[in-house]
Amino acid sequence: MQVRRCIHVSGIVQGVGFRPYVYRLAAEQHLAGQIANTTAGVVIEVQGSPESVDDFLLRLPKEAPPLALITDLRILEIEINGDSEFRILPSEKSEAVRTLIPPDIATCEDCLRELFDPADRRYLYPFINCTNCGPRFTIVRSIPYDRPQTSMAVFPMCPRCRAEYEDPLNRRFHAQPNACWDCGPQLELWDEFGLRASGNDPLGEAAAQLHAGSIVAIKGLGGFHLAVDATNIAAIQRLREHKHRVEKPFAVMVQNLETAERLCELDVGDRELLMRPERPIVLLPRKDLGDIPAEVAPFNKFLGIFLPYTPLHHLLFARNSLQALVMTSGNLSEEPIAIDNSEAVTRLAGIADYFLVHNREILRRCDDSVVRRIGGRVRQLRRSRGLVPVPVFLKEKLPTALAAGGELKSTICVLKGNEAFLSQHIGDLENVEAYKFFEEAVQHLQNILEVGPSTVAYDLHPDYLSTRWALGQRELKTVGVQHHHAHIASCMAENHLGGRVIGFALDGTGYGTDGHIWGGEVLVADYLNFERAAHLAYVPLPGGAAAICEPWRVAVSYLSSAFGLDLLKLPIPFLQQIPQPRILTVLQMIERKVNSPPTSSCGRLFDAVAALVNIRHEVNYEAQAAIELEMCRDEAFAGQPYTLGISEENGVLQIDSRPLFRAIVEDLLRGATAGKVSQRFHDGLVEVLLRIAEILRKHTSLNTVCLSGGTFQNAYLAMQFEQRLREIRFDVFTHSQVPAGDGGLSLGQAVVAAHRAR
Ligand code: ZN
Ligand code: ZN
Ligand code: FE
Fold first, then answer.
1. Which pLDDT belongs to residue 95?
2. For the chain, which domains are there?
């Protein structure tokens, strides 16, 4: 007896070796039938004995190729016919194929073996790839994802490549970027003026230049990297000077896991994470020993490490005795990453000494992704290359919506059905280049998803470029979403929550509904609305935005709220290190309410404590003071939390930090170390947040807590708070698919807007 079944497959099933896989599986199960790409996704028909068909259906999702992502399987019983073999039907070019574009993927083991096999025809070819690996998202102009719609369109395949491409049983069947020495892209080394500097071995010459201490701009998958030898202090310092990047940590690409192991502490989970096909930068505790100088990541106990992910990277390490390269985005600080050869030469003029370029165009900028494990769970710090455009799956279908994101570390989001597509990391929307990138991302994402949302969500901050852009979209319905509400909705969405939750949204800056700068917020929220249930008591922020770069101003503000003018008499080292006229100026600004907007920011509270213990009076990158404060904790003082007060004003709980600052001053007068103060501060914050959670549980009978906002990138705070909440039987939800920081904001905005539209 024979049966025939029709299977509709949705998800990422194109350009990932899915059809050859199904073909092989059908052959193994002795099934006849066919597979086709249709407007509704991939459709398979199989015919054979009921047992074989059942086995096939069981194996289909289980053994799918590593890059395939099956989101839905629908199976129908259909009439048998006279098929006696299994066939792969050609795609109909005229029909839009509704499968998702895959992300860019690191070179696979099979390709690596061929790359270093002298007998292979692609021996040492820097652009080797197959259906299991290589560029995807970054070379796509439009859909359907097929060679003519990619930047490989200008490279006609040679007969041998063409034969592989057309053979359903070949590893390169429909591998769109398939190429070889004869027909594909080639490398060149250029000098700082963009003139050809290489003979016939650009790679070897680039490797030699790196070895000699030069800064080499290297064209990668989603943009240029600036690379230097990670053991060469002078080269690193030059790179910092040229890039105007004073102390912000650089990431380091290491040759292999052994080198990673030598530089950092890593466990099984970290090793797996480093080896993932998306090859993220992983933040890891660095070991003291080793030949990587502190200049790579000054004042930092962590190092961002990643493994080679293109054939070019592998070849660079193979051609070189270097085991570690600083690899940082090819841009001037805060600008988007450069992707075009001539753009790179122009924008990186005065930064790079050489350019290792090639003629395969990058069509989509895409920075490296950055992740970290906290409490065994992966947290996204930057969700970009390798992860985009994989959607976040939602609990239910929602109306189509677009979200413009925030300002810092921004992303945008498009909702389609039950899938939320976040863009790659766009960066800080503070300059023209970034704004152009933002507009490109909005167009491209809508284009590849074939949607034209009628609703656009935006942040309430009137000065954000993303907000202005959204409000300028006359033909769209605009929905303003409060910053911290978006954070909590983002956490709810990725965890498939419904109903109301208690949301802790802790971060640096978000525009409040009262026009003040919020950031230490506890909300009772659902997707539609929120109530501000508790927040850090307001303090003046003398200098406004300028105070963000100068934490000492915030420390003076907090001291003045705790001590009034008596603060001037406090014999603590902090006050002796800041010139008194500057302190007096700040006090006057506060008193006369000049450029001193009130803030409930949690980031500024960390800044104030960091300044007060003299860790950092001024910062040169975002969250630097808070990061260094976290790292200096002295665990010997764990379990001795400072006390913070809770009061109530018009039904809203206020966290009073005056007792905290009095206690810190007392500690400092007794000669306490920064490590002790930091530890007691972290523990104190956890305690007061726990008390708030309990009070709100009593008021609302809610037991579900969501944690979001950039402050939860503080590993100690996040872990402690989560653990303690669970101990008192809260259901706690955090982020793992999108960043807790503003990179995840657009997801929350989109779901709020979609719910309001519905
Ligand atoms: Zn491969
Ligand atoms: Zn070829
Ligand atoms: Fe935020």
1. 47
2. 3-95 (3.30.70.100), 187-370 (3.90.870.40), 536-700 (3.30.420.40)
